[in-house]
């Protein structure tokens, strides 16, 4: 087993979902970001069947210089694949998907799942950038 394989099989078996999202047609970027941050995020956070299964939920608006065509990237972290599937199920999962229709172009969402962690920069070396 290679060192990379060992890192991927290590103690971090969490599942991370990265969703690259675009606003629905006719919605301004400002309205999209406001809805995403003040309505959709709190829906996930404050609904026990959603937030209770989620370890982390981050919303990252794309930078003005970004040319990808996406308006943001959401990251959700779960302890297991089963927790992710449980979050999607039932009335709360249905309510979350229905809410997405209020601000997302669901046909353009790209989702990537990852697990494990590979550190490419040694945190001890990332300090203040000063050289000795």
Structure description:
The protein is of the alpha+beta class and 132 residues long. It has a single domain, classed as Alpha-Beta Plaits (2-Layer Sandwich), CATH 3.30.70. The chain is 36% helix and 20% strand. It has helices spanning 3-8, 29-46, 48-51, 81-88, 90-100, and strands at residues 15-21, 56-61, 72-78, 110-115. Strands 2-3-1-4 form a 4-stranded antiparallel sheet. The longest helix has 18 residues, at 29-46. The relative contact order is 0.26.
Summarize the structure.
The chain has 132 residues and is of the alpha+beta class. It is 36% helix and 20% strand. It has a 4-stranded antiparallel sheet with strand order 2-3-1-4.
User: How many individual helices?
Assistant: 5
Largest sheet: 4 strands, antiparallel
- CATH domain fold name: Alpha-Beta Plaits
What is the count of structural domains? 1
Kindly state the number of beta strands.
Answer: 4
Evaluate the radius of gyration. Answer: 17 Å
Strand ordering within the main sheet: 2-3-1-4
Q: In one word, what is the shape? A: globular
Mean pLDDT: 87
Q: Can you identify the CATH class? A: Alpha Beta
Low-confidence stretches: 4-8
Shape-level CATH architecture: 2-Layer Sandwich
Q: Encode the helix/strand succession as letters.
A: HEHHEEHHE
Structural class: alpha+beta
Gap between N and C termini: 36 Å
* Beta-strand share of residues: 15-25%
Proportion of residues in helical segments: 25-40%
């Amino acid at each position: 087993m290679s060192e990379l394989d060992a890192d991927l099989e290590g103690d971090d078996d969490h599942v991370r979902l990265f969703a690259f999202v675009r606003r629905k047609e006719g919605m301004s970027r400002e309205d999209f970001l406001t809805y995403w941050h003040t309505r959709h995020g709190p829906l996930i956070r404050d609904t026990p069947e959603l937030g209770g299964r989620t370890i982390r939920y981050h919303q990252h608006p794309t930078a003005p210089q970004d040319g990808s065509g996406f308006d943001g990237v959401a990251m959700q972290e779960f302890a297991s694949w089963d927790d992710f599937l449980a979050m999607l199920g039932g009335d709360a999962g249905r309510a979350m998907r229905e809410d997405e229709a209020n601000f997302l172009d669901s046909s353009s969402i790209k989702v990537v799942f990852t697990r494990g962690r590979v550190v490419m920069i040694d945190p001890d070396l990332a300090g203040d950038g000063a050289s000795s």
